UniProtKB/TrEMBL annotation:
Molecular function via GO: chromatin binding
Protein name as catalogued: Cohesin subunit SA
Keywords from the named record: Cell cycle, Cell division, Chromosome, Chromosome partition, Coiled coil, Nucleus
Source organism of the structure: Amphilophus citrinellus
Record family assignment: Belongs to the SCC3 family.
Regions of compositional bias (Low complexity) in chain numbering: 992-1001
Length: 1146
């Protein structure tokens, strides 16, 4: 006991309590202990020993008698027996604010202790020997808490000793220099007594150095060599982190291959946190260029491993691996081969931003670090003569060589943090595009100019928006004042430069659709006020003139939509330029609509006599109007009448060109949506509501008629628009205070629902080869197939949204769900998400839909193979596998899905016995094999529900059926067995052990279960579980192993189930309510198995084996209770009741 520390009323507190509270300065705590040691070293050491024991979470205390008479191994064995069995936590792992700083205080105490004792006490051959011996013994314990705590203490002790050794080394060097200087003096001036003093001092320092080295060797060989390959990742990480500190602090002693090899080997560790410590340790070494020469052999040996870690599955590890390679690159260019560099280059396109940014820094260092130095005093060169010109060209060349042309935004984002100055040199970019090349300079080619324009647009967007591109965002981040100022300055500079440069750029590239599309996006990032304040109105006039010419020249949809968006960005009522832009826009639209009406009238009159030129004129004008209608309200031009007349003519005559119909449908769709938007704002009259209702319903009927068009593209357009309209005008449109829109609600009739489903089945669920949209050339063909698949996915998603939002009946989803396995690669994610959403809406109806889909597949199989089919056939196995997948989607929480699973079994049983036997009386029912499929869902039933479902099954069975054992009756036998498995003693429990050798502590788990008020059967080993599952009958599915604890069957009651006929066995009373059910249906307990021996580092170069296995203390206080669930919810009577299900189940 430390009775000397009296600060803050802490006298007589144990050392552990003082350090845990952390209220005192650590130096005063250590000084008090040193005073105690000087007074009585045995008492003080006993206090220190108990400090380490208590820091491990052990409640035991080492007495003076034990300290004097027992060996360390005996003391540790005694302390192991004193551990608290109720908890597996110990101070280093306990969560909470009280323990948050304990590790820091613990490490600081050890460091300060050695520092304060470094001049005398550590050399007394008693204190350090005792401590090192104790920590070495504890670190070899099978108890994780002892091993973890003592390893941390030993490694921090070693680090403190390394500091002492470093100081001794420095003092020895100084003493040696002083001695040499004194000895080199003339004899008359030499002080012999000083020489003797220096010799004596050097001898003492050498002796101290030898003692410290002996201590460090004892710790290294006794603790580190064994624990750096411990089964616990945290312990391995501690060792690697500290050896990195030793090599960095005292490189002369530790930075050699004898120690570096441990870091190299551990880079193959299976746990990310350990690999991460290896990389951070190496970064500290490579950062110091003076140490590079000593790292050459290590670099050559482990470079390939470091390069491969840039693709580590743990993103944090990958980031640090790239940063380490960047440091290697800084030290020497020769180590990394071009192949090594290329493996890092492509990571600039990674979706994970920290990885991409690290790769961007590597790329920037490799490609852009050798820039031309500017002469002092010389005027700064601008434009294409600036030093950045070649670097920008290099960026363009890299972008083109990477062959990921659509990812320029990701490349810019990756380089932004390290190369923003280069990427913001828009003046140089503009000059490279507009100015003539210098003498001897090679001009940019067309592809390079396109790439430069795209990169330029991405840099402008990044500067103006200040957030990463889509897919790389890390959530919303609050900008600092400095970042906001930089953003405003950049937007001002962007506007000033491009307001002037954009018109000539558009004029130069006006015929190139791709270049124009990108250039037209620039005004979206302008500060429009500068057009007025900067007196740039004439440049605005020039821009509007260029846009109008582009609209007249192009018919490409992307170009036209870019023009539309540019007008939308410029038509901002907040700015004074609005009137000027609005007039230009109105004039352009007037011309387009007048031209369209004139062309349409002529086109409809000519009918079949219309030539290609007339058709092209109508299509191009309609495309322009449609592109503008997307972003602008054109209600004043009454486009609905003309477009509806055009569509109606197409239906009546049947020979309307495909493109005219597609764009006319789209344009009419926009008319409807703009009308609805105005009504939603409440700015229109009631008459407008009736008009929109008529127009919308007429248009929906028109789209429905186009679903039977001979042209696939037209049908797809009609389908997509119809799905959108049905979703928009569904019953949900009146929510959010829009009750006045109720007359507009439109629910599709059964015929329309049927047509939509038929379309999906005929156009989405088709084989890739059936798609006729293929072209010559393998690469082009692949691209076309991907595009066609993307289109089909959009069609399916549009229909699935109708199911999710209850626009069409949920049961129509059965035809979709049954395709889950067959088209898993193409649409699996969409179908799975649809199942998930429908389950959230109505669990029971979703379950009925799933079982309906299986029934449909079963009927299809019967019609194809006949009633005598082989149950091992691929068709039947496919249905069974689909049922297994459906079962997995219900998750592990049986309480939430209880009623849905019960209904699913009810429907399945009724279907199995629905049709009589084709063989006559005495034969199995036609659909009996369906029970084999249904058994896949048995594991999802709760214990009491299994009995209830079993009784319901027996209602359909005759006495003779129960006695049958022929192969044709195996599905019934299999299904009954699946319902009876665990029916009396619940499902088999598989409790994971604490380690592969943890059987000695498993018996403690029984006590934990007793504390929670429930008895538990003996635990089965995993090998026994597999043996039991292998003994199931033929055709019987292996039971799903769950983690629910075995429960005592003595809870059974003698009352009968509500509404169920009496059975030859007395069933359990499921009407019982109260807390008992709360306990029985508690969530499964799954213990942590990460501490098992399976986590070994098998792939280390030296083929290491662990010498210590882990036996954790059993955690018993970490169970999650279901106290929030109502007892009634567990009652199967309420689940099976007619009032809940809406049907009479039994």
């Amino acid at each position: 006991i430390n009775g000397h520390h009296q600060e803050n009323g802490m006298e007589n507190m144990m050392l552990f309590e003082v350090v845990k509270l952390g209220r005192s300065a650590m130096q005063s705590v250590v000084d008090d202990w040193i005073e105690s040691y000087k007074h009585d070293r045995d008492v003080a050491l006993l206090d220190l020993i108990n400090f380490f024991i208590q820091c491990s979470g052990c409640k035991g205390v080492v007495t003076g008698e034990m300290f004097r008479n027992m060996q360390n191994s005996e003391i540790i064995r005694r302390m192991t027996e004193e551990f608290d069995e109720d908890s597996g936590d110990y101070p280093l792992t306990i969560a909470g604010p009280q323990w948050k700083k304990f590790k820091t205080s613990f490490c600081e105490f050890i460091s300060v202790l050695v520092r304060q004792c470094q001049y005398s006490i550590i050399y007394d051959e008693y204190m350090m020997d005792t401590v090192i011996s104790l920590l070495t013994g504890l670190s070899d314990s099978q108890v994780r808490a002892f091993r973890h705590t003592s390893t941390l203490a030993a490694m921090k002790l070693m680090t403190a000793l390394v500091n002492v050794a470093l100081n001794l080394s420095i003092n020895m060097d100084n003493t040696q220099r002083q001695y040499e200087a004194e000895r080199n003096k003339m004899v008359a001036k030499r002080a012999n007594d000083r020489l003797e003093l220096l010799l004596q001092k050097r001898k003492e320092l050498q002796e101290n150095q030898d003692e410290i080295e002996n201590m460090m060797n004892a710790i290294f060989k006794g603790v580190f060599v064994h624990r750096y390959r411990d089964s616990i990742a945290e312990i391995r990480a501690i060792c690697i982190e500290e050896i990195g500190v030793w090599m960095k602090l005292y490189s002369d002693a530790f930075l050699n291959d004898s120690y570096l090899k441990y870091v190299g080997w551990t880079m193959h560790d299976k746990q990310g946190e350990v690999r991460l410590k290896c990389l951070t340790a190496l970064q500290g070494l490579y950062y110091n260029r003076e140490l590079n020469a000593r790292l050459e052999l290590f670099t050559s040996r482990f470079k390939d491993r470091i390069v491969s870690m840039t693709l580590d599955k743990e993103y944090d590890v990958a980031v640090q691996a790239i940063k380490l390679l960047t440091l290697v690159l800084n030290s020497t260019d020769e180590v990394l081969t071009p192949e090594d560099c290329e493996s890092v280059y492509h990571l600039v396109y990674s979706a994970h931003r920290p990885v991409a940014v690290a790769a961007g820094e590597f790329l920037f260092k490799k490609l852009f670090s050798h820039r031309e130095p500017e002469e002092e005093g010389a005027p700064r060169r601008r434009g294409r003569q600036s030093p950045n010109a070649n670097l920008i060209k290099t960026t363009v060349f890299f972008f083109l060589e990477s062959e990921l042309h659509e990812h320029a935004a990701y490349l810019v984002d990756s380089l932004w943090e390290c190369g923003a100055e280069l990427l913001k040199d828009w003046e140089c970019m503009i000059s490279l595009l507009l100015d003539e090349p210098l003498p001897g300079e090679e001009a940019l080619k067309g592809v390079q100019e396109t790439a430069l324009i795209e990169i330029m647009l991405c840099t402008v967007r990044q500067a103006a928006e200040c957030h990463p591109p889509v897919g790389r965002g890390t959530g919303k981040r609050v900008m600092t004042a400095k970042e906001k100022k930089t953003q405003l300055d950049d937007r001002t500079r962007i506007t000033e430069l491009f307001a002037v440069a954009l018109p000539p750029l558009l004029a130069k590239y006006s015929v190139d659709a791709e270049k124009v599309t990108n250039l037209l996006q620039l005004p979206q990032f302008f500060d429009l006020e500068i057009y007025t304040t900067g007196r740039l109105e004439r440049h605005l006039e020039s821009l509007l003139r260029q846009i109008k010419e582009i609209v007249e020249k192009h018919t490409d949809t992307e170009v036209l939509e870019s023009c539309s968006k540019t007008y939308h960005a410029l038509c901002n009522e907040e700015f004074t330029i609005f009137n000027r832009v609005d007039i230009a826009r109105s004039q352009l639209l007037d011309e387009l609509v007048d031209k369209f009406n004139r062309l349409l009238e002529d086109f409809l009159q000519e009918g079949e006599d219309a030539d290609e030129d007339d058709t092209y004129q109508v299509v191009s004008t309609l495309k322009r109007i449609t592109a503008f209608h997307n972003a602008h309200d054109l209600s004043g031009w009454d486009l609905f009448t003309s477009n509806f007349k055009l569509l109606n003519s197409g239906i009546e005559n049947g020979d309307m060109p495909e493109q005219i119909v597609i764009h006319s449908l789209q344009c009419t769709h926009y008319v409807i949506l703009w009308h609805l938007a105005k009504l939603s704002e409440g700015s229109s009259r009631r008459d407008d509501l009736g008009t929109l209702r008529k127009q919308m319903r007429a248009f929906c009927m028109m789209c429905q008629r186009y679903l039977t068009n001979v042209n696939t593209a037209v049908k797809e357009q009609a389908f997509t628009i119809l799905c959108d309209l049905l979703l928009i005008f569904s019953h949900q449109m009146v929510s959010g205070g829009r009750e006045h829109l109720e007359p507009l609600v439109y629910s599709p009739e059964d015929s329309l629902q049927s047509e939509l489903l038929t379309f999906i089945l005929n156009h989405v669920f088709i084989d890739q080869d059936d798609d006729t949209n293929s072209t010559d050339g393998q690469q082009d063909d692949e691209a076309v197939k991907i595009e066609a698949l993307h289109k089909r996915r959009n069609l399916l998603a549009a229909y699935c949204k109708l199911i999710i939002y209850c626009v069409v009946e949920m049961k129509t989803g059965a035809d979709i769900f049954k395709q889950y396995m067959r088209y898993y690669n193409d649409y699996g994610d969409i179908i799975k998400e649809t199942m998930s959403k429908t389950r959230q809406i109505d669990k029971i109806q979703c379950a009925k839909t799933l079982i309906l889909s299986l029934q449909q597949l079963f009927n299809e199989m019967l019609s194809e193979l006949g009633h005598g089919f082989d149950r091992s056939s691929s068709a039947f196995c496919g249905i069974k596998e689909l049922a297994r997948r459906f079962s997995l989607t219900f998750g592990l929480d049986q309480v939430k899905t209880r009623d849905a699973i019960a209904m699913l079994h009810k429907d399945g049983i009724e279907f199995a016995f629905k049709e009589p036997s084709p063989q006559g009386e005495g034969g199995p029912p036609l659909n009996l094999a369906f029970l084999d499929i249904l058994s896949e869902f048995s594991s999802k039933l709760m214990r009491q529900d299994k009995r209830t479902v079993h009784m319901y099954l027996e209602r359909f069975m005759t006495f003779q059926m129960a006695l049958q054992r022929e192969d044709c009756w195996l599905p019934l036998i299999s299904y009954r067995n699946s319902l009876q498995a665990g029916g009396d003693d619940d499902t088999m429990s598989v409790m994971s052990g604490y380690s592969s050798r943890g059987s000695s502590v498993r018996s403690k788990k029984t006590n934990s279960f007793k504390h929670s008020g429930r008895s538990c059967a003996e635990e089965s080993s995993s090998s026994e579980v597999w043996q039991q599952s292998m003994q199931t009958p033929v055709m019987m599915p292996s039971p799903h192993l769950t983690s629910t604890a075995m429960r005592d069957p003595k809870r059974a009651r003698d009352d009968s189930f509500m509404g169920t006929p009496q059975h030859h066995q007395t069933p359990m009373d499921y009407n019982r309510r109260g807390t008992g059910l709360m306990e029985e249906d508690e969530e499964p307990i799954v213990e942590d198995v990460m501490m098992s021996s399976e986590g070994r580092m098998d792939d280390l170069n030296e083929g290491m084996d662990f010498d210590t296995m882990d036996i954790d203390l059993p955690p018993s206080k970490n169970r999650r209770e279901r106290s929030e669930l109502k007892p009634d919810y567990f009652d199967p009577a309420s689940i099976m009741d007619e009032s809940v299900l809406g049907v009479s189940m039994f």
